[in-house]
Amino acid sequence: MLNVKDLNVRFKVNKNYVYAVNGISLDINKGETVSIIGESGSGKSVTAYSISGLLPIPPGEITKGEINFEKANLLELSNKKLNKIRGNDISIIFQNIDEVLNPNITIGYQIAEPLLIHKSMKRETALEKSMEMLKKVDMPNPNETINFYPNQLSGGMKQRVMIAMALINNPKLLIADEPTTALDVTVQAEILELLRKIKQEYNMSILFITHDLGVAHEISDKIAIMYAGEILEKGTTENITQNPLHPYTKDLIKCIPRINKSEKRLYSINGSVSQINSPILGCCFYERCSSKMDICKKKKPEVQNINNHLIKCHLYGDNYER
Prior knowledge:
This protein is an alpha/beta fold. It has a domain at 2-89 and 171-257 and 266-281: Rossmann fold (3-Layer(aba) Sandwich), CATH 3.40.50.300. The chain contains 12 helices and 12 strands. The protein has an 8-stranded mixed beta sheet, sandwiched between helices. A 4-stranded antiparallel beta sheet has the order 2-1-4-5, covered by helices on one side. Helix 4 (107-118) packs parallel to helix 7 and helix 7 packs parallel to helix 8. The longest helix has 18 residues, at 185-202.
């Protein structure tokens, strides 16, 4: 359904460039959930906005690549054609709910808006559909909620409204940009279960953006590990979590607290994701990697396929078997 090929995105900051996404490739099949995992600053949200056509241009610029949705390259479409797809065939759940929901418009109308735009539906009919969708996302008292304003709802209820807005037109692809980040663990589990239920009902595909490997494990069929604008490892959820290959993936898993281990200090990766101001010659994870070699600084690793487990690391080059 979705094929991202060699996508490159940069931002102009004053007279310099920041390279946010550097040659990533990604596939999502019909009815499949694929998660992109990485720390803040890895380029996850930039990837999501590029796919949905919401990247601010300028300062953003897609310099290379293809984003093919059902065989149409979204980067070659006019704004008019893209608007017919966005919010209709491709929907997005945004990370910052309070910045998306309009405080001056009722919940019912905000959910109904995609129907008014894409389906030319009458207002009364659209509001009825909004109430039906609120029931599907397990919103308490949907008859009353459609007349509420965002400030009258809790964080979990606002997230359900966002999901209802994204699903009102029965999209083929749902992009969820860290939809559970600001929620407590109980509400987080409810939202994940809701997404699973709706995915099965609508047979849609989901691109799930998160920094939480545990959340991705709960909902994903496949996982892509992203760092500094590059995808370093891709595979099935089982492969990534049970048999991680890349040093960065292994470090991310070590960071997860274990209830059966008593540790005085939780594991953390030294340093942080640095801003990429010029193309990198070698491995983007070199500075923080505990397994680095001389070649890692000088030469960019190629993608290796090990039993359908894609890995971008010199440890798995010509000398892998040895």
